[in-house]
Write a structure and sequence with these properties.
With 454 residues, the protein is of the alpha/beta class. It contains 16 helices and 19 strands. Strand 14, helix 12 and strand 15 form a beta-alpha-beta unit.
Length: 454
């Protein structure tokens, strides 16, 4: 870390030191002095994180010779300290028991949300601005993990905006995206089993998010790829910048930029919407800078807010913690329900999904009631190919395969339907709002107008 501190491009940067009272003050003072000798930029001040075992009664600012911001509560005070000093780098000289690993992840989130890198003796969380700019209105849809409904939310929001007369296009990046950005005009191209099998035969991942976006939203979609994802969502390799250049030339008024997994598109967007699965444990959310994603978001959509996935008390707790870290965020609770893209009435159905299998009864009851079908077999192994094939082989006789366009939907289920002369229908997952008096479209339009008026 010494060499990173000594970098020439740090000459114009500001550094703050984080200390605790478990170190003897003289030790902390000498460490800060050493830190200053390494760092070529300016020193902003000291953030005191707490701990009194070795703290002596003294005027801390007089003792250290620098401005000191004393933290009473990490959650409420740390961002204020960063705002006070405005450092580019916060260097952590604290340790257990004042700062444990969970608290360090919180500090990392607060630093990243404040545009500050966070560094310690053997770690660096490097903040970088979202460098891709757009001349169009933009909405980022990010998430705190995989399989929490980003694509379904993205397609649904696209349709809501189209209903408002806004011309929308989507830029989606995924781990199975194309080497060169690919454009699909969702309102013109017939995306059916023949189209998907042709893509699969030509070596494309035919269930990639951008294809699902084009199928479900029917808007122009640009498919990009990405590989790797850091704690704060940074990507190792992507062609998103090339995809954005294509998007800028479209006639659309607004771009939806869709993240992948917990990775964040490096586009400087006007609005950020974060999706969080209600089944996710709070410790896992803060464990990989979920708080950073929460703080940076204008709207947070909680998905899968139903039993037995998550009970009401857990969801209440999750929402209260979200509000603690981002009081101004709009929080909307939702559940997903399937919507076949063509008729399945009177059919015996094999259902393929990536959903959590504990809600199998909820999904089957909904499909059979709303669409007049009979689900003879439900497989929640769409992302596990061998198990999915076993489910097909053990299934009672069926007329039709109903599936999400994800994972093995094409190379297993669509291939199977083609060979066995079975009908196949793809489905959307519609978010149904369960929050009292919540209005997703209304809140979204307010956000867009607010950003335009700034």
């Amino acid at each position: 870390m010494k060499s990173l501190l000594q970098k020439k491009d740090n000459r114009d940067k500001r550094l703050a030191a984080l200390i605790d009272g478990e170190h003897y003050p003289e030790v902390s003072r000498d460490a800060i002095h050493l830190l200053k000798t390494y760092f070529p930029g300016s020193f902003s001040g000291i953030i005191f994180l707490g701990g009194t075992e070795k703290l002596i009664a003294c005027d801390m600012e007089k003792y250290f010779g620098d401005k000191v911001y004393i933290i009473d509560d990490i959650d409420s005070d740390f961002c204020r300290a960063l705002d006070f000093f405005k450092p580019d780098i916060a260097y952590d000289l604290s340790d257990e028991p004042v700062v444990d690993y969970k608290i360090r992840m919180k500090i990392a989130s607060f630093c990243m949300a404040s545009g500050c890198s966070y560094m310690g003796p053997d770690f660096l969380f490097s903040w970088e601005p979202r460098y891709i700019k757009s001349q169009k209105d933009t909405i980022a849809i990010i998430g705190t993990g995989k399989r929490i409904g980003k694509t379904a939310i993205s397609a649904y929001i696209a349709r809501l905006l189209i209903d408002e007369g806004i011309d929308v296009a989507t830029v989606a990046m995924g781990r199975g995206g194309p080497r060169e950005p690919k454009v699909i005009k969702g309102d013109e191209v017939k995306i059916d089993e023949k189209y998907l099998l042709r893509l699969n035969k030509n070596g494309y991942h035919a269930s990639s998010d951008y294809i699902e976006d084009a199928l479900l939203s029917r808007v122009t979609t640009i498919g990009c790829r990405r590989c790797g994802g850091g704690f704060a969502g940074k990507i190792f390799m992507t062609n998103l910048e090339e995809g954005m250049k294509i998007a800028e030339k479209l006639d659309s008024d607004l771009l939806i930029i869709e993240g992948s997994g917990a990775s964040i598109p490096q586009v400087d967007t006007d609005i950020t919407i974060c999706t969080i699965g209600a089944f996710q444990e709070w410790d896992s959310l803060i464990g990989y800078l979920g708080i950073y994603r929460i703080i940076m978001s204008d709207m947070i959509i909680l998905t899968m807010c139903e039993e037995p996935i998550a009970d009401l008390k857990k969801i209440d707790h999750l929402e209260s913690r979200i509000k603690k870290y981002n009081p101004g965020a709009i929080v909307i609770r939702t559940i997903f329900r399937p919507k076949p893209l063509s008729s399945i009435r009177g059919k015996k159905i094999f259902l393929g999904m990536t959903a959590i299998d504990s809600i199998e009864k909820n999904i089957i009851d909904y499909l059979e009631t709303e669409y007049g079908c009979s689900v003879v077999k439900a497989s929640f192994n769409l992302s596990r190919r061998e198990e999915l094939r076993k489910d097909l082989d053990s299934s009672p006789e069926f007329d039709l395969i109903l599936t999400e366009l994800k994972a093995a939907a094409v190379d297993v289920l669509t291939e199977y339907a083609s060979k066995k002369k079975k009908e196949i229908v793809y489905q959307d997952n519609i978010p149904i709002i369960t929050s009292n008096r919540a209005d997703l479209k209304g809140e979204l339009i307010k956000l867009i107008r607010r950003r335009k008026n700034k």
